[in-house]
């Protein structure tokens, strides 16, 4: 009997009930102000992952030994950010209620807000670890409160001072940098201070939502993104940093802003796949 | 004294007060459901027009002898279709009140709704001539009423039966084709019937809003668009048809759905520029 | 309970047992002599089909009302054509034994041989209708008997004179054209003679394997293929021809030679998807 | 004993002394005003020709039976048009003196002037058949007399009224079209009148220089060119027209304006190769 | 009253009279010997700069607080280097006479010669700081004295020994490297020695023309250039170096050799925009 | 007398008999499992090398002073790996018998096996230095023993334990890493240990076959390859390492896995050309 065509991220073949981590995609980029295309990120990662090995020589572990379920992409309404966030929050909420870690594949960075709303409902003392080239701290963007450029500001509305820890930020308006200095744990340009932040959060066993905007990587490594910002971190620096974060109590996570059609060489999608593999292995190692 | 850098569509150098036609761009594509990028259409047309001649051998007239003003692009809020439509309606309204023809460069096709609202306010008996590969007659798309896939349906909400004349349609849901047969003057696949439609409208001196979705062209001629549909009309067929439409009383118009980055050869942008040149000359010849 | 991510060609959602037509992909292009990439054809068609409507305005029918099952892609061994052909023959054989029509998505054209072997086993009086830019009639290519350039010659080895009907051929060696004139029902350049051929085959109720190399289309319509040959047929000519073929007794079919990465505009994949939709609807209409 | 790597256009392997036609490339595009890249045309044609069959089903003849020598590309000085033209004239002159037909591969269209100077020296009563989208009749371009936009005007300086026969022209300044109507045998848009022109020239046995700007082709067929102009002729129309021209007394020829890097699909280079094959066979058939 | 469409580099909105720095573009690449396209550099930078923030976190300053006027692009004659240099010299001369810093956007590197001629006229004791992958010290290139490959040699003709300070050079002919060792202050491969050079020039308050060929950057960071040379400096190294140079008495500057169409990802243009922002802020900080 | 068009890698113009090193290309990629295209590597390197200087500032030597002959590409049968390996072995054998160093340009990495077979025949105590992102140590791949993923395993079949020295490996199956630890001199991630390995081999004067899979480079430097793996070495690290290897007794070498069409910027081909220039100079310096 022939089977229908199932397409998951490589090595993510646990059943939902057996899984500890659940992938879900949010193919949404309606508020992207410069170059759209992040909507195609999750499916490209799934599709190109067949060129990836499941084994990580960095962690000497194999993704096939982790318990990951890939629930596919949400069907989101372009042009209606509030509805899209509602659908994301609902999916993340279900996964959290079932005691699993939701791992969101964006899409533009605004999608993070849906997942953070769900996580903050379950964990009112939630912290956010934020890797990004951009501060994303504008109060509004051309009048819109729900924009990729405002997403961390909206998270701050929910969580308040001292809960958001930002790294590798190297672009934004002057006001955003001033806001960051006043209200977030702010580390521009690189990962300096990450080790200290994580050791503090580990002591508190604080629940952490971990959001990675892939444009934290240098554009030489990751050109396929809407707003590439020269001067980012290297792939190996990111791997090291994410493994460090995963030693703490991560309760939800996301990878955002791969826009695959902006990089015809395929290098960006391949790098994103590898970051996801390393993140899944590191998260699963911690929770299993 | 050095002058700042002014960039207009080639040959459109009348002052606003002297002009009979006014260009304005709507770089918006938030509701595009498949491949975005139409936001870059208007600036690409302006930018690449310097490779175009202003003289039309088809009409034996020169664009520099027409009275066209290029007012640049609106700054629209991505992710908020209602606000964007409001801003477009407002710009179109001003141009109409000043007795000129507004010519909108999209952007995705939804932008047409803003301009049609303004035109229908001034001309309650407005007709629409619609060239497109897609019927755009859905009542809603994933719950959204304001979507590129619904734009002509929203125009029908305003104008009712018998006012919308559709040509070259070759893609849509079964329900859209059924709706079209019941409620619009529907001509699938090609321009058959256009001559008759125009002769009737000329007799009535009916005010016409003329909306051209460039994907009415065959993808061989115009690959740079979000949803290319094989089986369209040729460039020369489109030129002939638009000159025919411009013999009637056109009070507003638009060109939509050029997504320049989907066609690295530049052929699509060059074709769109030429369609605009021919449209401007044909419109201006009629009104001057 | 969340479901895993199933990806099929749009509208092909029958169960295997209910289906009348079964899709299967052969992502193989090892023998391609010029530009490879057809291996990515089947997955690109599935992936991009979500931009397609299921309704055909040409046939006024909807793909969702057909009974098609998509069994996904075979996992084929690159560099070993004989093994790949064996796996294809085995899949086609099972579908034929279950009384369904196998519809193969290539891949390079050599994959047809596997399906033809299976069909000829069940139907010894099999005929082949062949649409292609290339004659594919070489006896060997650089010493290899199993090459995309030899596939119809290998079919002739199986079926003999008078069984192969070739259309739109416009490229080949002088010897291939001479062979064709002697041994096949040969119609270079276009579809002239197709109506007559089909009417003869209908009278005989001859079982037909229908193989479409998409490079029969003009490169303006379908640039994304390994060896584009100027001077081909239009999209509408192909649609008309394939509907004509489907009035006869087609027992197996394939679509080949989409190399999606050779056409960044996506136009070729979109055209291939539409050809597949029209072919499925036409086949299903005949058999249901 | 191993041989060094020789690269010629496919099937052009006669020795210089045996040859009747001699290819030479002019990789020059310094005066291109819009998008450069035609400098890479000749080497791309040589390089990609290995994907072409030597047999022409249109003429039922094989290029390997013609006597063509490929002398490779001239090494031209960018930024110095007069020097480049001198080098081209010198190469063309030698080939003409040796009693062979020089066939020049451009490069931008200005290169034609070098070859025409050499031909006009040998044949003072030279005529020019000119296929092009552009009139190329400007007297100067931003002050330069030697520009691709002026090349036919410079030829007219040499040859005067009644000697230049222009076809398929569909772009230019108003002045150029007026000049053409007064001074050349002018056929805008298509090949109408070609048959008559050729029959007159055949009666006179007039020596003809035949210059083909490949942008006479529609951009759907040939997007890879600096200034694509919608509304051109089809590939089959061009083949028919060039075979007609080759029944007259062609003493020199060129193919220009392929800019291969503007068309990543490779379709334009493949089409150019096929035009060259057909041109070589038609020319050789006449002279052998 | 609607305004015409003004397009400047982002944040450069001072009036000419108020400005301290004046941008002007030289879209010229006629002498480029390998891959042309730098002509599109200045307009691409202007056009894509709307994706850039005006705030520099590196210098904690905002471009909107600087006094920069963007005078647009010169209209230069392709194929005539001497005329183009004359026009550039004339524009640079006017800006210098008005007591402002001219900042030239190339274009190929030859354009620097026009600006240097103007600067050397005003400042006979001019020094040049030159960042580049290539020595550009050939005496002639295929017979041409005015070529991108000779531009620094031509500057040396004007200024003589000891005035030219070259950094990051990693490509050239053996003779160029020997010439450099004898006649320029030569620092191959990286910025070693820059600090010392600048401190000496500061002590002398020497007037400096600062020319940056963006291919000094590693191609991983800046692939969009005609002749990419592996082994270059990083973006952060370049930022640090240019800020160091701007502490001295820079009287004119340029950024060259962005060829945007060679990098479809847009990363190169984005990097060039950021280098320009940082350069403008650093220059303005020094002079205001 | 005009000469035919000879195309060699720049500066490789010795006669075969005078040469010490002989280039030969193997344009083969039939077993590539992910993205093919390496077949175009050798011709792209030859073709693009005209943009390269022959002088190496790193070694202060000029390629024109080395004695290199370029014998062009083998004509290999796609789809038949064993035949292709036989043809490669035969060419390498002849060059070795003539006392020269064969330098193979791939193609996919499987081609190395042909050259290693020839070298092991002449030098039974052959060692292999292997730079690569991938271990290439699978015993079979989807049933095939002759696959790019198995090539070093096949070499191990020939040579046994202790003869293969692997560097920069960062991708593979868990089993491959375990095999490597047991059977090869294994250095994952970077060049650590290379100096020691080379000093041991130099003491033994061991004959070395040196195989460089260019994907050892970081994808930021070299995106144009079938399976890019983030986290590789830099260009300067590779240059330093290859010069170190060339101080030992290298008897044969290859450069593999450039897939030029995957990198439209041309940066990968340019980098590969430079690696080849540096390798040729370093090899020739040792042997002359």
Please identify the top-level CATH class of chain A.
Alpha Beta
Q: Could you say which structural class the secondary elements and strand pairing of chain A correspond to?
A: alpha/beta
Q: Reading side by side through the largest sheet of chain A, how are the strands ordered? A: 4-1-5-10-9-6-7-8
**E-strand count of chain A:** 10
DSSP summary: helix tally of chain A? 8
Provide the helix percentage of chain A: 25-40%
User: What general form of chain A does the structure show?
Assistant: globular
The assigned CATH architecture of chain A is 3-Layer(aba) Sandwich
Name the poorly predicted regions of chain A.
none
Largest sheet of chain A: 8 strands, parallel
Q: For this structure, what is the CATH homologous superfamily of chain A?
A: Ureohydrolase domain
Q: Which fold does the CATH topology of chain A refer to?
A: Arginase, Chain A
Amino-to-carboxy terminus distance of chain A: 35 Å
N-to-C order of helices and strands of chain A: EHEEEHEHEHEHEHEHEH
- Oligomer state of the chains in this structure: homohexamer
Report the portion of residues of chain A in β strands.
15-25%
Number of domains of chain A: 1
- Largest protein interface, residues of each chain: A-B, 25 and 25 residues
User: Any idea what the radius of gyration of chain A is?
Assistant: 17 Å
Cofactor (chains A, B, C, D, E, F): Mn(2+)
Binding site for Mn(2+) (chains A, B, C, D, E, F): 109, 132, 134, 136, 213, 215
GO molecular function (chains A, B, C, D, E, F): agmatinase activity; metal ion binding
Organism (chains A, B, C, D, E, F): Massiliimalia timonensis
């Amino acid at each position: 009997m022939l089977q229908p065509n199932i397409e998951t991220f490589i090595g993510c073949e646990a059943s939902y009930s057996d899984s500890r981590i659940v992938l879900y995609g949010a193919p949404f980029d309606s508020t992207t102000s410069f170059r759209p295309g992040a909507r195609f990120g999750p499916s490209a990662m799934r599709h190109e992952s067949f060129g990836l090995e499941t084994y990580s020589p960095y962690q000497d572990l194999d993704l096939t030994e982790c318990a990951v379920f890939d629930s596919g992409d949400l069907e989101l309404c372009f042009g209606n950010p509030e509805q899209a966030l509602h659908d994301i929050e609902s999916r993340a909420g279900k996964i959290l209620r079932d005691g699993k870690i939701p791992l969101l594949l964006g899409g533009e960075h605004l999608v993070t807000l849906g997942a953070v709303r769900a996580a903050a409902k379950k964990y009112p003392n939630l912290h956010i670890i934020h890797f990004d080239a951009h501060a994303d701290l504008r109060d509004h963007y051309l009048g819109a409160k729900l924009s990729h450029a405002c997403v961390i500001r909206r998270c701050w509305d929910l969580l308040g001072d001292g809960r958001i820890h930002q790294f590798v930020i190297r672009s934004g308006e002057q006001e955003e940098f001033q806001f960051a200095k006043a209200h977030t744990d702010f580390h521009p340009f690189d990962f300096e201070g990450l080790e200290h932040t994580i050791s503090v959060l580990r002591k508190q066993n604080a629940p952490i939502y971990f959001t990675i905007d892939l444009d934290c990587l240098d554009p030489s490594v990751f050109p396929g993104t809407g707003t590439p910002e020269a001067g980012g971190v290297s792939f190996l620096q990111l791997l090291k940093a994410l493994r460090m974060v995963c030693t703490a109590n991560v309760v939800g996570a996301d990878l955002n802003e791969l826009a695959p059609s902006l990089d015809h060489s395929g290098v960006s999608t391949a790098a994103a796949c590898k970051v996801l593999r390393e993140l899944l292995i590191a998260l699963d190692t911690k929770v299993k």
